[in-house]
């Protein structure tokens, strides 16, 4: 009995450890060493309170996917009306947003034209001829001039393996000029710079002297005394190609190792043929982490204002919060408003830069029917982190039957399809956990019936003692195992369902009261269970009828604690979120491209 109690207590402690870790999960994986992030501020540096500070900056984005059925002209008008509502000095203008975004995460450089490449190759050949004639000073001047194109467009040039090899060859020929002059130290420094410019790859065979190749081998084998570092790139999607200075070096979230300390241009590309925005990552002698948005800024468009555009509604539902948070950080705003025009009205969602989730949403009708009071109410609710629906009339006083039916139909439609796998996974997992708890109670009832017969034999001398003892003992291992397993399963299911509910909308007042009631009931069950565990206990001596009472109390306490797990999850998770400002539980997602599919589960577990 003592062993069973220890096992159950261990499972219970693991349950609450899981709940706490799941609830406090960060939106990006924890950094190892230096933490870098998109935009002007590192992830997590902006305020996380629902009530924005006085000097909070806002940025407004249009949001659309190919099949939303919305009108972009209506979205533009909605952006204009909302912009007038933001207090003076607290809205990052469109021009300033575009400029800051381009500084923080610029678009990839233009690939050199054929004429530019021909001119560059002619310069390199000219410098090589100077080296052959021993005119090393002239050769270095020519190589320095030729290095201007790779410095400006190397990210684009290195995407082609052949061009990357040419860039490395030209750089190593400049190192040869130093070596031929007898300046090995500067030659070694030049080779290090060449390896930074082209992080991987070998030079063309037969093009370089043994002295230069030995310097390159010394750098690559880390025998030159320079420290090495690694870069781990994390994103909401797994399997995205990571390019460092244009060279593909792996996929998210696998770390890129053996990098020389330097500043690198990093791109994360989740769709083939679509270059990602350029992010600068500082790699030191240790491990660094770069956290990026859902589609690495690829969805950000500049077309008369900033907007997020996606190929499909599921892609937008999965990535819009990550990308909106990226834009907010990049332009120096604390919060972003996503404006989407749909067939059912205009939806405005608030996303904070440090919390890649939809914090609150406001539904309004067509922008040309808005009045000043409607816009003021919508923005005030979003500023407080509260959701509101003002589609029924200008004042938002109430809805008629048709409006209520349409609103209910739309709310239900948000759960359809693959855009909310967390809802299905959470309900299924929670159902499995509750089924396990119910089965453990059934076994408890069976054990209790057997205990009524066994209870009368206090000495072990009555006929059928062994049969009664076996009938009482048999259900216990399965009962405690089910109770111990059901607790963490139901808590995990509650976590997933909680995340899906928060994706759908900001919790209402009724929802908060329900959560509070669940917490009270759960706390009562947990307190009752602890009392039963303390009152029950171990039976000293042989297992006879005197053991039935203490054992039943212990079993009842274990089952009560298992039943309390899903009820206690919600208030505990809400308290942890409020205490640490984290986002909602674990995130479960499904990514599908033309050639692969990936299911991912993310959280600081």
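-> sequence recovered:
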């Amino acid at each position: 009995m003592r062993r069973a109690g220890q096992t159950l207590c261990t499972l219970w402690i693991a349950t609450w450890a899981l709940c706490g870790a799941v609830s406090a999960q960060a939106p990006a994986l924890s950094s190892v060493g230096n933490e870098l992030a998109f935009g002007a501020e590192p992830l997590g540096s902006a305020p996380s309170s629902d009530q924005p500070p006085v000097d909070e900056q806002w940025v407004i984005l249009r949001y659309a996917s190919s099949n939303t059925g919305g009108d972009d002209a209506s979205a533009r008008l909605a952006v204009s009306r909302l912009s007038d509502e933001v207090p003076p000095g607290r809205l990052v203008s469109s021009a300033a947003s575009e400029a800051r975004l381009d500084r923080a995460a610029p678009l990839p450089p233009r690939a050199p034209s054929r004429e530019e490449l021909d001119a560059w190759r002619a310069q390199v050949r000219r410098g090589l001829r100077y080296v052959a004639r021993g005119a090393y000073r002239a050769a270095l001047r020519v190589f320095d001039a030729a290095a201007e194109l790779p410095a400006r467009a190397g990210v684009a040039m290195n995407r082609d393996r052949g061009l990357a090899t040419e860039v490395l060859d030209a750089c190593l020929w400049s190192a040869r000029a130093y070596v031929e002059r007898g300046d090995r130290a500067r030659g070694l420094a030049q080779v290090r710079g060449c390896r930074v410019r082209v992080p991987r790859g070998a030079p063309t065979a037969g093009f370089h002297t043994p002295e230069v190749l030995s310097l390159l081998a010394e750098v690559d084998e880390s025998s030159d005394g320079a420290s090495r570092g690694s870069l781990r790139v994390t994103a909401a999607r797994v399997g995205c190609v990571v390019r460092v200075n244009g060279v593909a070096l792996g996929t998210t979230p696998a770390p890129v190792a053996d990098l020389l300390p330097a500043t690198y241009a990093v791109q994360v590309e989740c769709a083939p043929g679509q270059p990602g925005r350029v992010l600068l990552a500082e790699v030191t002698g240790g491990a660094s982490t770069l956290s990026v948005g859902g589609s690495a800024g690829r969805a950000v468009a500049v077309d008369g204002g900033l907007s997020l555009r996606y190929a499909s509604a599921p892609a937008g539902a999965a990535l819009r919060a990550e990308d909106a948070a990226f834009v907010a950080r990049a332009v120096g705003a604390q919060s972003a408003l996503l404006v989407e025009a749909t067939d059912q009205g205009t939806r405005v969602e608030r996303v904070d830069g440090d919390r890649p989730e939809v914090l609150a949403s406001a539904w309004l009708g067509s922008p040309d029917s808005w009045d000043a009071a409607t816009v003021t109410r919508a923005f005030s609710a979003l500023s407080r982190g509260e959701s509101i629906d003002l589609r029924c009339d200008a004042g938002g006083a109430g809805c008629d039957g048709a409006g209520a039916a349409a609103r209910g139909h739309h709310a239900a439609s948000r759960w359809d399809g693959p855009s909310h796998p967390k809802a299905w996974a959470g309900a299924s997992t929670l159902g499995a956990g509750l089924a396990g708890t119910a089965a453990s109670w059934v076994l408890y009832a069976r054990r209790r019936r057997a205990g009524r017969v066994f209870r009368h034999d206090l000495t072990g001398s009555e006929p059928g003692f062994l049969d009664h003892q076996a009938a009482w003992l048999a259900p216990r291992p399965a009962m405690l195992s089910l109770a111990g397993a059901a607790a963490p399963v139901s808590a995990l299911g509650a976590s997933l369902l909680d995340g899906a509910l928060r994706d759908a909308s900001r919790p209402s007042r009724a929802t908060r009261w329900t959560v509070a009631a669940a917490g009270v009931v759960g706390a009562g069950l947990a307190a009752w269970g602890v009392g039963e565990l303390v009152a029950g206990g171990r039976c000293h001596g042989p297992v006879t009828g005197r053991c039935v009472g203490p054992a039943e109390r212990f079993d009842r306490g274990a089952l009560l604690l298992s039943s309390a797990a899903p009820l206690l999850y919600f208030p505990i998770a809400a308290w942890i979120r409020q205490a640490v400002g984290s986002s909602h539980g674990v995130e479960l997602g499904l990514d599908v491209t033309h050639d692969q599919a990936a299911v991912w589960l993310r959280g600081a577990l």
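The two ends are 31 Å apart (CA to CA).
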